[in-house]
Amino acid sequence: MKRIALYLALFAGAVVSVAPYLMTLNSAFKEPAQVLTTPAWEPAFPVTLENFAQVWSQYDMAGFLLHSLVYAGAVTAGQVVFSTMAAYAFGRMSFPGRDVLFWGYLATMMVPQIVTLVPLFLIMREFGLIDTYLGLILPTAFGTPYGIFLVRQYFRTIPRDLESAARIDGAGTLTVLVRVLLPLSRPILATLATITFITTWNTLLWPLIVTNGDATRVVTLGISALKGQHSSQYHLILAAAALALLPLIVIFLLFQRHIVRSIALTGLK
């Protein structure tokens, strides 16, 4: 009975979590009149693809999705590379002031993002990076406290005997990182990449501040602008939201196994 109750609770939690996404996808296939006259959970009938065709042809959804892909992909690649190197330095190397520096850097997580927006904008303006991909990418491409902390904690679970054995064989610091630690850390790196990509893809505030043209407009800004211009055409907004949601579903399905392994495994095979 306890197991049945547990599974029922988990099922209820899953339904509550997934229901908004399913209702968005369902409503995106409804005709304009049905969107406002039927409940969101009522199946679309008849099913129509006109909403997707209209939002794709009348608005630059392909461009918005491409801009978001470049933005999120570049930030994710930078986060994985630089967070890994910083995590190795903080977790496996010894140098004066290491722990003080790490915990001081980690304390910046308590600073709200809104506090740093104006200084970041002024820096980007001084370098002439307003309304550019570099202006979008640079503030978060070199690692974040959360990413470094996540990878560092995983590195600390890997036995030091493996690293010592590699050094006895003549491996240097970079070789140990690339050939010993990274192969054992694929689950946590996949988790970091997935979290970073999804977070960056969904970001609205920083792109809103640093971009002002269609050449760099990401999908979140595209949907926001669509809602502002056509506040009553919810069928188009839902179709655009469904298009923006699909890449995230694909990313999660590809990496969900690694996310579970990063929680369940240590670094020792």
Outline the structure in words.
The protein has 269 residues and is an all-alpha fold. The chain has one domain (22-264): MetI-like fold (Orthogonal Bundle), CATH 1.10.3720.10. Helix content is 75%, strand content 0%. The chain has 14 helices and no strands. It starts with a helix and ends in a 5-residue tail after the last helix. One of its GO terms (biological process) is transmembrane transport. This is ABC transporter permease subunit. It is a multi-pass membrane protein.
CATH class equals Mainly Alpha
Q: Which sheet architecture does the biggest sheet show?
A: none
| CATH fold description | MetI-like fold
Uncertain runs are none
Q: What is the string of helix and strand elements?
A: HHHHHHHHHHHHHH
Helix percentage range: over 70%
Query: CATH superfamily name?
Result: MetI-like
The total count of strands amounts to 0
Shape descriptor: globular
Overall mean pLDDT: 85
Percent of residues in β-strands: under 5%
Domain ABC transmembrane type-1: 65-255
Pfam family, one: BPD_transp_1
Family: Belongs to the binding-protein-dependent transport system permease family.
Transmembrane segments: 69-90, 102-124, 130-151, 188-209, 234-255
Key descriptive features of the protein:
269 residues, mainly alpha, MetI-like fold, globular
